[in-house]
């Protein structure tokens, strides 16, 4: 009993400490922001409007969810538009990169054939394709293709890495237990590669977010949070620009959070945590 | 033992590894017969080819010359009639204890019920009741190797090939596992070819101890251990045989040392 | 710092440096001292003037009186059949009515129509009333395409040929004898003609396939489109488009960022009729062979060179060695700035 | 002698194989491209011009290095403009992220204070800042700041990770050899963290490239390869757009190549390879 | 040996680890004196607290009670007068052999020349000539531990604390290193406290063998090994002492086993 109390106290104090430090740091951050806005306004800087007060941003944030904007959409519509693109791009990347990575990791011939193409496309920032994809692939598949290019390579490379790192002794063990090529592939290589795949997915989703925002800012595909930021900037509604940025930050946190959760569950299920 | 049937037959094995420009002759003229139900220990200086012998018998390594047969069949590739236990345990980390043990049975397309019956039997045999659904990461080294042994046995192989299976364990756990192995061996009556670095272990376990020469490896001497089991490490007979083996080994060890010094002293990476 | 801003300090007396800044950011960049001036269209000019940040150095009518600016273009495949031509004619009629209505409203600043015009403008540009009122003063809303219009477009084409982004081959490759011939073919007044006989209709001609309209975000030059879409202008509660039996909707992607984006949308096949600046309409048609025709003017003039309100710059010479933001080399504003400086014997160079 | 010949033959045949496969795969790629362009043109697709022939792109690529474009610049000028921004952004990110990562990896208090701020900014795609930075920071520091945000987090997180992974036994060893706090920091923690830092730099440079291209495309600024692509697209000179994309691909390969070389040298020097 | 000066004095040591809610009493009433120049081996079942004793003496771990002094000074924190050799070698991978050995000297702000003179001396002592500029990764386990020993000695500490220094080495290398240690020990005359799992090793090396009880660790029995060096593993005297130690240890080992079984059988993670 006594020790439980002590434990509870220990955990509490550790959490308290973290909450306190976190709160302090966020308070300082918001305070600094408020002060900077105030300073710009008080001294009549012509660009004071570009740094709205935190309070204004909070208001704009809430408003964007209940009032339609100049494009006739609610924030939720923009969010769904962006999510749809991410989802399609991710699915496409996953469906192609996973088998490609497994193949290129397993066979030197596939690697020899695939790598030159990969090496041509990989260093090209996906956004460079915007002008072309917008027209050739259209307003749905254009941005999806850009997201695809952002997510594809991290998944591909991580899966390849995973396949190459498969502990040869595990393959030996499987062989001595009677496993053939197919068994080895499905029962050893694939499970071994899963954590690498998850890493690829996490990295890829981060880049995917970056791509979709930029794609929506540069090309106009109809809605999307990136488009929202661009449009609000065109209208000089900077509190709404910041609200859009906040929405992206929150969505980014949620996406990687969900990926992290899935990863954790998977690891627990696979006995790796 | 002479009247018994030979189970593992290795004749005049040759193994040459090609490494860039160099050719390493790991085995040359290695011959050994292991009789059905026998427990033979393979001893020899580091790098003499013990692992290579085992891997060729397992079918995990091709031979450059000679013949190997197990239960009368020429070995060509790995197969479930030879169970292998690895020093590194080689458990599938994403599978539970039970699922590891059932790996070979899954490949045989056995039904879930049959699999469970067999895996339960071997879980009992290696004393892992209660750990069926635990993943390897949660187990101690000794427990991991029990899983390794159970997994190899679950396929009901004719022979067990064990490559320093207790090498990664601490001294006490090692002693315990030796006793466990003998218990399991006498319960299953498998033919066992057991590689070790430890003279003590070999004398404690083996029907016969095969001491190999330094590279290229061949059989230097075969010492029969006629002591009754369980053996006492502190008994006089035990110590006599131990000393005999040590002396044979010492000579080969010195050869290895000399060569390594002349090679530039770098042994192999740790 | 000298090393970083390599071409900032050479202090040539006849060189003006330009950067490319999205117009929405120009006012702020000027206020923050990132640039010394900019050239942009309305309402980005009045934004600064009303906001007290900038003052106009030169209006575009001073540089090139009556210069054409935005136009209405159609995707040729859209007007390839009878129905498309009928729709385009009706659209033209709405465009003309809206333009006439704007001009009438502007003529009487006390009228209720003027108040309504201001409201529509405020909603369309998301600017406040004073910015809108100021902006409306400095452009001509017109649809007629006269000789002066054609000559100006020839002139723009020529300037692009001068800087090497359009070559003779493209003109010849399009089957044109020369620039004049090209503009003659590219500009088609016939829809304006057809429009004169269009009557209001009680039934929608294209109920199932709306005309997909492209236009720029908040560009007050394209106000006619906003007026024709508004249901507050006519007494019968219909929009002008509806009144002429048209089903018009914003194309996917609209409102667009710039004229290039509208042209890309034509190429991609998801805009039927679009409002855009004349230079991108010419450039992209020639270079990317985008199958379009200019069918009406939307406005002329309406751009200006703006400098910091408190600066001592009072003439183009005052810009020597300074940095002026433009919307990009393919914009009409860039051409206007280049022209203005050329007449002063000055040069325009990019700032890197 | 014999074995040397055999080796040489082995190496040759392996390299030959790779060259052959690589050549084959690139030939197939260019063939497919050519066929696609041809198909679009032959069937009078409205966007045929957006996919120029490989030969046209090659010509444009060469031309861009010798003929000034509509902006009065040569490709080299654009490359230097982009490199300058990357360089400044990288330097800034490095100079801030390294000490911040060391601090936040070493002390729970710094981590508690720093992480909330980091977690606010990290999920925001750097490009979302363009409208704001363009005005507040201007045409030099605006894009530099965007590159900074792209490079900062990978370096920060990798350095933090490195510091946390320092093998405690190495610190124990150092202590028993008389090392104090400072010694431990400079002689154990810092060298231990170096490979992690290098990973952060490599990842960061990749993202940095992506950011600069996008920043130059969205924010324009004047000069830079991203700007070049944007401008050529505005002019509808798609062979030059592709030439710009090719330049970026080559620069990307070079940048990561150089980073990889530095890493390899460093590892050799540190005895880790 | 009684007349000699005591170098390491541990009196009534208590060590309690707090782990979440549990408190683990690792040591309780552990007392031991090690005389100047003596080589004492610490033996005991897994988890009995051997490492803890060593780490407290090294100053790497705080004690919960009792006293430790080395060379008459109360221990408070790690310091260069006690050299430590770790089972994991704990070499700095980014430093060459020489640079590893010079680590402590750099901290003493010694000049480069002096450092080189000293490191050369110890490189010779541990037979690593020719490997001065090699990084640890390139060395075999035995060579790595030679560097570990040289590094500890370079600081010229009063005592050497060694925690299973040869535990990660294979049997032959281990034997070799034991001989090397004795050679170095007799050349430097350091006081050595040496933790091991191996009875064989303890008997081969020690002046006295301290056998510890199962947790909480305290001294169970001290066995003097009065054999002359070099010792013969196969000699009758050697075997007698070995048997004696084994028996003492066996009893304690059984206690550990019992506890582990009742703990749920999970030993510790491998
Ligand atoms: N794949 C390989 N390529 C090249 N040489 C090899 C390979 N595998 C083993 N060898 C060499 O063959 C010889 C025998 O190796 P093997 O692993 O069988 O020895 P071992 O007796 O098991 O040694 P240890 O006691 O260290 O396990 C060694 O000299 C080794 O370096
Ligand atoms: N940092 C720690 N926190 C909690 N418990 C610890 C810690 N270090 C050691 N212990 C516990 O203290 C006891 C003694 O540990 P110690 O490592 O000294 O044993 P040992 O005799 O060296 O064992 P081994 O032979 O396995 O090396 C063990 O039960 C161990 O679990
Ligand atoms: Mg081996
Ligand atoms: Mg220990």
In DSSP terms (H or I, runs of 4 or more residues), the helix count of chain C works out at 15
Structural category of chain A: mainly alpha
Query: Topology as H/E string of chain A?
Result: HHHHHHHHHH
- Unreliable stretches of chain A: none
Report the sheet with the most strands of chain A, covering strand number, pairing sense and barrel closure: none
**Share of β-strand residues of chain A:** under 5%
Distance between the termini of chain C: 13 Å
Low-confidence stretches of chain C: 1-10
In the sheet with the most strands of chain C, the strands line up as: 3-11-2-12-1-13
- Principal-axes geometry of chain C comes out as globular
How many separate domains make up the residues of chain A? 2
Mean pLDDT of chain A: 88
| Gyration radius of chain A, in Å | 24 Å
**Largest interface summary:** A-D, 58 and 58 residues
The beta-strand count of chain C equals 13
Number of strands of chain A: 0
CATH A-level architecture of the largest domain in chain A: Orthogonal Bundle
- What's the helix count of chain A? 10
Radius of gyration of chain C: 21 Å
* Broad CATH class of the largest domain in chain A: Mainly Alpha
Task: Find the CATH topology of the largest domain in chain A.
Answer: MetI-like fold
Detailed description of the structure:
The complex is a heteropentamer, with two copies of chain A (273 residues), two copies of chain B (270 residues) and one copy of chain C (352 residues). Chain A has ten helices and no strands. Chain A is mostly helical. Chain A folds into two domains: 1-51, no CATH class; 55-269, MetI-like fold, CATH 1.10.3720.10. Chain A is globular, with a radius of gyration of 24 Å. The mean pLDDT of chain A is 88. In chain B, the strands form two sheets. Chain B has a six-stranded mixed β-sheet with strand order 6-7-8-3-9-10, with helices on both faces. Chain B has a four-stranded antiparallel β-sheet with strand order 2-1-4-5, with helices on one face. By secondary structure, chain C is of the alpha/beta class. In chain C, the strands form three sheets. Chain C has a six-stranded mixed β-sheet, with helices on both faces. Chain C has a five-stranded mixed β-sheet with strand order 7-6-8-4-9, sandwiched between helices. A two-stranded antiparallel ribbon of chain C has the order 5-10. In chain C, helix 13 packs across helix 14 (278-288). The interface between A and E is small, with 4 and 4 residues. Bound molecules: adenosine-5'-triphosphate (2 copies) and magnesium ion (2 copies). The site of one magnesium ion has 3 residues of chain E, from helix 1.
